[in-house]
Specification:
The complex is a heterodimer of chains A (425) and B (434). Chain A has helices at 54-61, 71-80, 105-117, 123-141, 144-156, 170-175, 178-188, 204-215, 267-278, 280-293, 324-340, 345-357, 359-362, 366-378, 385-394, 398-408, and strands spanning 12-16, 22-27, 33-40, 84-89, 94-101, 195-200, 238-244, 251-258, 297-304, 312-319, 414-420. With 425 residues, chain A is α+β, with helices and mostly antiparallel strands. Chain A folds into two domains: 12-215, Metalloenzyme, LuxS/M16 peptidase-like (Cytochrome Bc1 Complex, Chain A, domain 1); 238-420, Metalloenzyme, LuxS/M16 peptidase-like (Cytochrome Bc1 Complex, Chain A, domain 1). Chain A has a six-stranded mixed sheet with strand order 1-2-6-3-5-4, sandwiched between helices. Chain A has a five-stranded mixed sheet with strand order 7-11-8-10-9. In chain A, a hairpin with a 4-residue loop joins strand 4 (84-89) and strand 5. In chain A, helix 3 (105-117) packs parallel to helix 8. In chain B, helix 1 crosses helix 7 (171-181), helix 3 runs parallel beside helix 8 and helix 9 packs across helix 12 (347-364). Helix content of chain B is 42%, strand content 18%. Chain B is globular, with a radius of gyration of 23 Å. In chain B, the strands form two sheets. Chain B has a six-stranded mixed sheet, sandwiched between helices. Chain B has 434 residues and is of the alpha+beta class. Chain B folds into two domains: 5-208, Metalloenzyme, LuxS/M16 peptidase-like (Cytochrome Bc1 Complex, Chain A, domain 1, 2-Layer Sandwich), CATH 3.30.830; 231-423, Cytochrome Bc1 Complex, Chain A, domain 1 (2-Layer Sandwich), CATH 3.30.830. Chain B has helices at residues 47-54, 64-72, 98-110, 116-134, 137-149, 163-168, 171-181, 197-208, 258-269, 287-293, 326-342, 347-364, 368-382, 386-389, 391-396, 400-410, and strands at residues 5-9, 15-20, 26-33, 77-82, 87-94, 187-193, 231-237, 243-250, 298-305, 312-320, 416-423. The chains are: A alpha+beta (425), B alpha+beta (434). The interface between A and B is large, with 91 and 82 residues.
C-alpha cells in the first residue's frame, strides 16, 4: 500500500441514499471479514444538566429488544456467528460498529438495522441496565484516573455541554425515565446526516445494494438537528481542583484547556505540535522529562481531542503524592518551552515522518479502514484526504508549530485536576 | 491471507519464525526471551519486568533516545511486555524499514549498558507503575488470590514484583538476569508481514548468527502440590463495589485437556474459544451472563483461561451489582456451576463455541502484529508455533464428553481459591467529584 494505493477517490465508492444517508464502501478482499462503522447525529450535547447520561443510556438500550428480537435473541444470533455489533454515544454523534465474517454480513446488518430503526426499549431491560450503569458509576467513583478526568472536564468547561459527564451521575441515571429515552430517540435519531462506512470482502455494488435495502426506507420527519457545541472559555490563571481519595496509592493528574475543533484551519499544526510535546517515541518531550529524566511517573503524555466541538488539549500523569508539584511544574515547563522556543528542525522532521509513516499501520485491518473513511466524511476532509495527508503534514513549518502552541496552549492559564491521596483544597 | 510459516534454528540456537503476509506494506519484528516471572525466586521478584524497562536505555552504539527516534521517525510503533513465562519486544514498521528493528534488537540483546543512575531513575518509575495498579481493586484482589492459590510455584507473585524487592533490587541483580537469559539459545525471533523469507533470514543470520549461544533458562522445578481444600481470601479496600473471583488450578497449554477447557470457558462464560489472549467479544448469550447478570445479581461476569507453560488458573470473575452482596453472588455462581452436572454443555453450545473460534481465528489474521504475537506466544509457551496454527483442528476434535469430564475434574470446590474484594468506604456525593 503506497500513498497512491491508500483508499481514495478511485477506490472508495461514495453514494447518498434518498433519505440522506451517506454510504462509503471500500473493497478489500485480503481477509474474509467485513467491518462497518457508522454515525447518527444524536449526541450528549443536547442533554439538559439534570438528564446527564441520557444519550448514553439511550444508546445502551438499542440492543435490549426490537420489534423483531428480544435482548437474548439478539445476542444469541450475533454470538452464534462470532460477530460483534456495538453502539456507543459521543458528544455529537451516536456511533456504531460491527465486525463479522463476510458470510455473516447480512446477519450483522440485520441486527444493526433493527436496533437502530426499530428498538422497543423494554421497561424491564431498562431496569436491568440501570443497575449496571449505577454499578459502573460507583466503580468510576473509586477510580483515581476517572475522577481526575471527570473533575478536569467539569472545571475546563463550565456551563458547557462538555463539562457534564456523558455517562451521567448517580442522581441523573437513577431518575431517568423510559419516556426520556423514547423522547430522545424520537427527536434525534434519524437518517439525516447519517454516515455508514464499510470495508472488507464484499463487492462495492453488493454492499451498496445491501445498505440501500436495509436503511433506504428509514425516515424520521421530526428529526431535529443536534447543534455543534459552542466555544468554551479559556481559564484565567491556574485553576486547581483536588478530589481526595485517601486510601489510594498514587495521584492521577489531568491538566489542560479547551482546544481546536477538527475543522480549525490550523488543526494539523496543533496536532503535530502535540505529537512533539507528548506523543513522539516514548510520550514526547513530556515523557522524556517526567519519566526518562526524573523517573517521576510510569505514564506522562499529552493528547489533543479534536472532534466537531472544541475538544480539550490535555496532559496527564500518574505520580507519587510527594511528586505531584514537581510533575506539574515539569509539564508546565515543557508547555512554556514549546510556546517560547522554536522546535528544532530535527524534532519537526522526526515527528512529521512518524505521523506520515504510521499511516499504513492504521489501514492494516478492515476495522481501521472503515473507521478512517467514516471520519473523513464526518469531518469533511475529502475522499483524497489520505493521498494529500503526507504533503499536508510535511508542509508544516517550525513557525506553524510554534504558532499553534501559542494559539492553543498556556502554562499560566490552565486547569489542573488531581485525584488520589491528596488533601482537599 | 494465510501463507506458509517457516521455523529455522540458527547455529547458536536462536529460533527464527517467519510468516509472509502481503496485504499491507507493514512488518512486525519480535524477540521473545523464554524468561518471565515464573523464573523469579523471592528477593528477585519483578526482575524480568524491570530488565524489560532497562532494555530501552541504550547501548554504546545506540543510546536510548536514538533507539526511540530510529523507530518512530519511520512511523514505527515499538514496546515490550513481560509475562509469567516470557519477556517480549516488538517493532511494527513500514516493511521496507524493518531492517532497523533487526539491527536494534541484535544490538540490545548483547550491549545494553544499564548504568546505576538509569537503574535508580527507573526504580521510581516501576514503583509508580505498581502504585497505578494498586489503585485498582481488581489488581489488589488478583494479587492476593494468586498468592493464595500458589504456595510453592513462582506463579505465586505478580509480574510487577513485590514492593520490598523493587525497593532493594540492585543493578547487579538486573544485569546478571540480563546476561544470563538474553542469549540466542533462549530466544525466539519472529517476523510477520510484507517481506521475502529467504532475504530476511539471511539478514537475521548476519546480525544474530555470531552472538554466542549462551544457555537456555533452566526448568522451574517447584511444582505446585495438589490443592486439598477450598482457600478463601478477603481483600478490603476503598470503593462501593464488591468483586468476586473463583480461581481453579488447571493444566498448562500443552495438556490434552486444554482444548476442552477452552470450549468449556466459551460456553460457560463467553470467553475466547481459542483459549488465547484475544477477547471473545460479547458474552451475553453465555450461561454465566444469563445466570448472574440477567438475573440482576452481577453487573458483569467473565471467564479467563490463559495458556501457560506450567499449570495456572482458570478464573471466573463477577462484579457485584449495586444493592447485592458477595454471598448472594457467590451462591448464584455456585448454583450455575452445579447445573453443569445435571445440564451439561449441549451440542448447540458447542457448535456456537466452534463457530466463534473460526471467526476469532480469521479475524486475528487481519493484524500483522497480532499474528506475530500469537505465533511467538505459542512458540514461547509450548515450544511449537503450530500450537496456534493448528488450534481449530484440536478444538474440532473435542467431544461433549470431554467438556463434561474436564468440568467435573477441574471445577471442584477443593481445587478452588475464592476471592472477595469487600469495599470498606462509602463514597458520598452521587458519583460527582467532591
Amino acid at each position: 500500500m503506497t500513498v497512491n494505493s491508500y483508499p481514495g477517490p478511485d477506490t472508495i465508492r461514495r453514494h447518498i441514499l434518498s433519505n440522506g444517508i451517506t454510504v462509503l464502501v471500500y473493497e478489500n478482499m485480503s481477509s474474509a471479514t467485513v467491518s462497518i462503522e457508522g454515525v447518527v447525529r444524536a449526541g450528549s450535547v443536547v442533554e439538559p444538566a439534570d438528564k446527564a447520561g441520557l444519550a448514553d443510556f439511550t444508546a445502551d438500550m438499542l440492543m435490549r429488544g426490537t420489534h423483531k428480537r428480544t435482548f437474548d435473541e439478539i445476542y444469541e444470533t450475533l454470538e452464534m456467528a462470532g460477530a460483534g455489533v456495538a453502539f456507543g454515544s459521543a458528544s455529537h454523534t451516536l456511533g456504531f460498529s460491527s465486525h463479522s465474517l463476510a458470510e455473516d454480513l447480512d446477519l450483522a446488518l440485520d441486527v444493526i438495522v433493527e436496533s437502530l430503526c426499530r428498538p422497543v426499549f423494554p421497561a424491564e431491560q431498562m431496569e436491568k441496565l440501570r443497575g449496571q450503569l449505577i454499578t459502573g458509576l460507583q466503580m468510576r467513583a473509586n477510580s483515581t484516573r476517572s475522577m481526575a478526568w471527570l473533575a478536569f472536564f467539569e472545571m475546563a468547561y463550565p456551563n458547557h455541554p462538555f463539562g457534564r459527564s456523558s455517562s451521567g451521575y448517580l442522581d441523573t441515571i437513577s431518575a431517568m425515565t423510559r419516556q426520556d429515552i423514547v423522547g430522545f430517540y424520537e427527536r434525534y435519531y434519524g437518517p439525516r446526516g447519517m454516515i455508514i462506512g464499510i470495508a472488507g470482502a464484499i463487492r462495492a455494488d453488493d454492499a451498496l445494494r445491501k445498505i440501500e435495502s436495509a436503511f433506504g426506507g428509514w425516515r424520521n420527519d421530526d428529526q431535529q438537528v443536534v447543534p455543534i457545541a459552542p466555544e468554551a472559555p479559556r481559564p484565567s490563571g491556574i485553576v486547581r481542583r483536588h478530589v481526595p481519595m485517601p486510601d489510594k496509592h498514587q495521584v492521577d493528574i489531568v491538566m489542560g484547556l479547551p482546544g481546536p475543533r477538527r475543522s480549525a484551519v490550523d488543526y494539523l499544526d496543533a496536532s503535530l505540535m502535540n505529537t512533539i510535546l507528548g506523543v513522539f517515541g516514548m510520550m514526547g518531550r513530556i515523557g522524556q522529562n517526567v519519566r526518562e529524566e526524573q523517573g517521576l511517573a510510569y505514564y506522562a503524555s499529552s493528547r489533543l481531542a479534536g472532534g466537531l466541538g472544541p475538544g480539550a488539549w490535555t496532559a496527564s500523569a500518574g505520580v507519587a503524592l510527594d511528586k505531584v508539584d514537581l510533575a506539574i511544574e515539569s509539564i508546565r515547563h515543557e508547555i512554556r518551552r514549546i510556546i517560547d522556543e522554536p522546535v528544532s528542525e530535527q524534532e519537526l522532521a522526526d515527528s512529521q515522518a512518524f505521523r506520515v509513516g504510521s499511516m499504513p499501520m492504521s489501514l492494516e485491518t478492515n476495522g481501521g479502514i472503515a473507521d478512517i473513511i467514516t471520519d473523513m466524511e464526518l469531518y469533511g476532509l475529502g475522499l483524497d484526504y489520505l493521498h494529500r495527508y503526507g504533503e499536508m503534514m510535511n508542509d508544516i513549518t517550525i513557525e506553524r508549530v510554534q504558532a499553534a502552541a501559542r494559539n492553543y496552549l498556556s502554562a499560566d492559564n490552565i486547569n489542573i485536576a488531581i485525584s488520589g491521596p491528596v488533601e482537599a483544597l | 491471507m494465510s501463507s506458509t510459516t517457516t521455523k529455522t534454528r540458527l547455529g547458536n540456537g536462536l529460533t527464527v519464525i517467519l510468516k509472509e503476509m502481503h496485504h499491507a506494506p507493514v512488518a512486525t519484528f519480535m524477540v521473545w526471551y523464554r524468561v518471565g516471572s515464573r523464573n523469579e525466586l523471592p528477593g528477585h521478584t519483578g526482575v524480568s519486568h524491570w530488565v524489560e524497562h532497562m532494555m530501552f536505555k541504550g547501548t554504546p552504539q545506540i543510546p536510548g533516545d536514538l533507539m526511540e527516534r530510529m523507530i518512530s521517525r519511520e512511523g514505527g510503533h515499538w514496546n515490550a511486555f513481560t509475562w509469567l513465562d516470557y519477556t517480549a519486544y516488538y517493532e511494527t514498521m513500514p516493511s521496507n524499514r524493518i531492517d532497523i528493528a533487526l539491527r536494534l534488537e541484535a544490538d540490545r540483546m548483547v550491549n545494553t549498558i544499564m548504568t546505576p543512575d538509569e537503574v535508580e531513575s527507573e526504580r521510581t518509575v516501576i514503583l509508580s507503575e505498581r502504585s497505578m495498579y494498586e489503585n485498582q481493586p481488581r489488581f489488589l484482589l488478583d494479587e492476593e488470590l494468586t498468592a493464595a492459590a500458589f504456595r510453592v510455584h513462582p506463579y505465586h507473585h505478580e509480574v510487577i514484583g513485590d514492593v520490598v524487592d523493587l525497593q532493594t533490587m540492585t543493578r547487579d541483580m538486573l544485569f546478571e538476569h540480563y546476561r544470563r537469559h538474553y542469549v540466542p539459545a533462549n530466544a525466539i525471533a519472529v517476523v510477520v508481514g510484507d517481506f521475502d523469507t529467504s532475504q530476511i533470514l539471511s539478514q537475521i543470520t548476519e546480525l544474530f548468527g555470531s552472538i554466542p549461544a549462551g544457555e537456555e533458562t533452566t526448568i522451574v522445578r517447584r511444582e505446585e502440590p495438589a490443592q486439598l481444600g477450598e482457600r478463601r481470601v478477603v481483600v478490603n479496600g476503598p470503593g462501593d463495589t464488591a468483586y468476586l473471583t473463583f480461581a481453579y488450578h488447571v493444566p498448562g497449554a500443552t495438556h490434552p485437556d486444554y482444548p476442552a477447557l477452552s470450549l468449556l470457558n466459551a460456553a460457560l462464560a463467553g470467553g475466547s474459544s481459542l483459549g488465547m489472549f484475544s477477547g471473545g467479544g460479547s458474552n451475553r448469550s453465555s450461561r454465566l451472563y444469563k445466570a448472574l447478570v440477567n438475573t440482576e445479581f452481577a453487573a458483569g461476569v467473565g471467564g479467563s483461561l490463559t495458556p501457560t507453560i506450567d499449570p495456572f488458573l482458570y478464573t471466573l470473575s463477577a462484579v457485584v451489582r449495586s444493592g447485592r452482596t458477595l454471598p448472594e453472588v457467590e451462591s448464584a455462581l455456585e448454583a450455575e456451576l452445579d447445573r453443569l452436572a445435571t445440564e451439561p454443555i449441549t451440542q448447540v453450545e458447542l457448535a456456537k463455541a466452534l463457530k466463534r473460534a473460526r471467526a476469532q481465528f480469521i479475524m486475528a489474521g487481519e493484524s500483522i502484529s497480532g499474528q506475530a504475537q500469537l505465533l511467538g506466544a505459542a512458540e514461547a509457551t509450548t515450544g511449537d508455533y503450530r500450537w496456534f496454527e493448528s488450534v481449530l483442528e484440536r478444538l474440532n476434535e473435542v467431544t461433549l464428553d470431554d467438556i463434561e469430564r474436564v468440568g467435573r475434574r477441574y471445577l471442584q470446590r477443593r481445587n478452588r481459591t475464592t476471592g472477595w474484594y469487600e469495599p470498606t468506604i462509602d463514597n458520598e456525593g452521587g458519583g460527582r467529584p467532591a
